[in-house]
Amino acid sequence: MRGTSSRGRSVCIALAIALCARPSRAEPSEVRISKGYGILYLPLFVMEERKLLEKHAKAAGLGDVKVTWRTFDGGNIINDAMLSGALDIAAIGVPGFLTLWAKAKGNPRLEILGISGMSATSLYLNTNNPKIKSLKDFTPEDKIAVPGIKTSLPAVVLHLSAAKELGEENYASLDPLTVGLPHPDAMVAVVSGKTGVDSHFASPPFSYLELDHPGVHRVVNSVDVLGHITMVMPYTTRRFHDQNPKLNKAFLAALEEAHEFIRTDKKATAALYLKASKVKASEAELLRILEDPDTRFSTTPDGVMKFADFMSRVHTINAKPASWKELFFAEVHGLPGS
Fold this sequence. Notes:
- The chain is an alpha/beta fold.
- Helix content is 44%, strand content 14%.
- Helix 6 (153-166) links the parallel strand 7 and strand 8.
- The model is unreliable at 1-25 (pLDDT under 50).
């Protein structure tokens, strides 16, 4: 018996030594991040062009981290890319995030949470149809372009707008008129007036640029419906967050630096965005948008519960967070979110 016990202790000691000698999981040498079109993603354009994540990752002792940027438009497309493992961090409209958060809640393999807030601005529902003055004027012959049907940010803002104007029971009444188009393509359709798509729920700069064309007018301004709230945010899986704490802190630091750059040098920001996005606009047009008080950038999650409460109430998500903190990692819990 004594020999067996001795051998058992030897095995335990050897196993302990092996576990101690085993290298800890290294943080990744590459991180894949998605961004979309428009001013709502401006902080990520700044991060990419100024290599801010690379800078903060190196400062955190992670060495030379390769950052791969991918462009997606529409919450369903972004969430599919995240679930397939094609992305590590995704920037998305709050409604698209909530859709995936509710589906993945309680599943440790798929669970996601928000990293922080990022941007807020006004979304405009623009049209080239002179007969349309309000949501009540849309007919089955009209088509409204949104980046993704039902779950994209503009699609859900359309739901909220319809609920306010037409009654909550009619929140989805305009869904049959929606068509999925990326913002740049939707702007071309509305401005040309030749595609059958006569309306577009657009984000800046596309919303502003459309209104610069004769015959295009605004029907809805999201700020009138929702106020100034976070529209787009970054998120990741709990697994990626917990396995890469230094990288996540570096991402937050890079995002804060991008926000500061935008706040303090709007002229340089406008030039950077025009170069990186290849949007056909002038620097003056971009400065007009950046100086608009409706355009705001902050890591504080502001008003995300307005989306969560509505989407839970109309049963487009099957789980309701108790507070905004349930939706985000602890690093931002000290901020005055809502």
